[in-house]
Amino acid sequence: MKRKLVSIPLSVMLVSSVLLAACGGDKSASTAPAASTAASAAPKATEADSKPTPITIMSPLNTAQSPPDVIVKELEKMTNTKLTFQFFPADTYEEKLNTTLATGALPQVTYLKNQATFIQMKSAIRDGQFWEIGPYLKDFPNLSKLKSTTNDNTKVDGKLYSLYRGVDIARQGLIYRKDWADKLGLKAPTNTQELYEMAKAFAEKDPDGNGKKDTIGLADRNDLIYGAFKTVDNWLGVPNNWGEKDGKLQPEFMFPEYVASMDYFKKLRDEGLINKDFAATSKTDQIKLFTSGTAGMYIGAMTDVASLNKDLIKNVPSAVVDVHSMVAGPSGKFSSWALGGYNNVVLFPKSAIKTEADLKKILAFFDKEMSPEVANMMFWGIKDVHYSVTDNKAKKLDEDKWTREVKPFADAAIGDEDTTGRYLGIPSIPAAGKADQLKIENLKYAVQDPTAALDSKTNMEKGVQLQALITDATYKYIYGNLDKAGFDKAVEDWKSRGGSKIIDEYNAVYKK
């Protein structure tokens, strides 16, 4: 079978994980099989299949180094498997994924990085390189619990090829230095003007009290989606990727609010309120700007607040963080950019899985993984080693130990809290508990992408290259290297090179 090379260029590499990515080594965790029975949720093994099932798994690594095999050994005992995890740094994962796909060397279980990477992989899916798994889910009691709406958002041409890693739908918001805000007499911003004023004060009014102008308001990165831009542009009234205008679906950058968002970020950059090289800043370096005490604001997943705080107080022990999400735009209305119920998916390459019987064995592993016992091991680790339980909720005993030994596996846990039955967590700091509340309140104002479950043939063929035009034009506009007329020309180029066909194709299926 001829394999299509899925090109993942700059425009897609700018899309980072909603997770805290750090540069780690190209190491893999591999352990010997453990002689034990499978988890209680697994079907009873016959003599023919009692041998541990060998499974190799490729996954992005969001910690500084690959984990030890502590959790792997326990998972092997509980699922009757021999697991080999191949972890690769999340910052460069798309490149590794692209190379491995091109050489036909993908392992049996291949995680992508995020929604954008999944979209780019659809051409290879259509090319028949991955197993369709939808028809098999009904045969597995736990896999059949996966949410149908999320499954629908991950289908390709109406067929399901992937298992999803669930995500909070409306988790976006502001993480900020409350100690700085209190010192300067600032409250949590209720609108985008007050958000700007907080950024300006944090940059210009010496919030750390050292007598030097060495702080900035907002730390951002080279990512127009999972960085600050998309969350803020939604606050400013931009739709989620696509929106309805003049009676039909149109892309977000054809709305006047998108230009207003570029103007907003241009003002932040021109005035030195954001790191000026943000378009070339990795997520790792963005995080360092906040945790080193240089920046006072971080816009993204509010659920990252505990890990950000952990590293921040190592450098600034007196620091206090808080979270906020209800920021209104000029219209006075609240809105919250919503994800499609997943932040990553796992695919099953036919090049590595030769038979239906082998596929079913691997799906059986994931079915066991969704049982409460195995899900807790995957997400929380070993009880009384990595976490304790109080009132049927889990609390990490040592954040650093959990991050080092458990987080890479938690980042690969499929399903959701409610579909797996794993423990809910006890917040480690008050701000984390507040984030849990706000992500629920945000649901009332969640703005969904109307094209999430739609397909456009032209978008599959040309979408990456066309989006690169808009991404580059957006950065050039914010940096002052392109004016409004230049941006409008980029939009016209997008339309003439295939964008108009994408609009037509989406609207043709949207109206049905």
From TrEMBL:
Recorded hits in PROSITE patterns, A to Z, give: PROKAR_LIPOPROTEIN (PS51257)
Q: Where is the signal peptide?
A: 1-21
Ranges of Low complexity compositional bias?
35-45
Annotated region (Disordered), positions in chain = 35-60
Keyword terms, alphabetized: Cell membrane, Lipoprotein, Membrane, Palmitate, Signal
Q: Tell me what this protein is called.
A: Extracellular solute-binding protein
Does the record's keyword annotation contain Glycosyltransferase? no
